[in-house]
Write a structure and sequence with these properties.
heterodimer, A: mainly beta, B: mainly beta, 56% strand
Chain lengths: 114, 114
């Protein structure tokens, strides 16, 4: 399966600032997604990162707060903008090759907002 | 709206005992179901993927069954080992055109004692 590298692995940020998380895959993949895991909760899908076009966001998530880029088939970034303590979560990048294939996850970025 | 439930939330067993983890979902119109393992501070590791047309999947000591009509999946881990200690998550895939947009359960935290 693809090797997924996320940077940074963790960060502590101040309220009102922004953080950009990078996701690099060692092979071309069809689909890339960004998930969030809030403390003590399970994973929630933020958006689908579409190569060469705007990301598709799930209900409750907006582009101004979570801008996403995907310039090619191996790389994507998620920015958490104007952060508040409620944004403290683990953010995970996931990839796959479409129908019939499993979804694989990176190790995540643990974000703490103070 | 699809709801995914995992019971129990936590489980402790002595080494060598078989593990039985349950996952239920409210909408039987699923595309697939995937079981993951999450270690503390780490991302998710894909264990087994069951397509909606399949009844079960096996990999080594792991066996997962799927009963769509009753909205249930069970993950069996034979002869548990301390290294099996982790949180196990099940996730349901919605439809073909939304592949990868998984709905996760809250997980079962497993401790295998030596």
């Amino acid at each position: 399966s693809a090797v997924i590298s996320q940077k940074p692995s963790r960060d502590i940020c101040q309220r009102g600032t922004s953080l950009t998380i990078q996701c690099q895959v060692d092979s071309q993949v069809t689909m890339m997604f960004w998930y969030r895991q809030q403390p003590g909760q399970s994973l929630t899908l933020i958006a689908t990162a579409n190569q060469g076009s705007e990301a598709t966001y799930e209900s409750g998530f907006v582009i101004d707060k979570f801008p996403i880029s995907r310039p090619n088939l191996t790389f994507s970034t998620l920015t958490v903008s104007n952060m508040s303590p409620e944004d403290s979560s683990i953010y995970l990048c996931s990839v796959g090759d479409g129908e019939g294939s499993p979804l694989h996850f990176g190790n995540g970025t643990r974000l703490t907002v103070t | 709206k699809q709801e995914v439930t995992q019971i129990p939330a936590a489980l402790s067993v002595p080494e060598g005992e078989n593990l039985v983890l349950n996952c239920s979902f409210t909408d039987s119109a699923i595309y697939n179901l995937q079981w993951f393992r999450q270690d503390p501070g780490k991302g998710l590791t894909s264990l087994l993927l069951i397509q909606s047309s399949q009844r079960e999947q096996t990999s080594g000591r792991l066996n997962a069954s799927l009963d769509k009509s009753s909205g249930r999946s069970t993950l069996y881990i034979a002869a548990s080992q301390p290294g099996d200690s982790a949180t196990y998550l099940c996730a349901v895939g919605r439809t073909t055109d939304s592949w990868g947009k998984l709905q996760f359960g809250a997980g079962t935290q497993v401790v295998v004692t030596p």
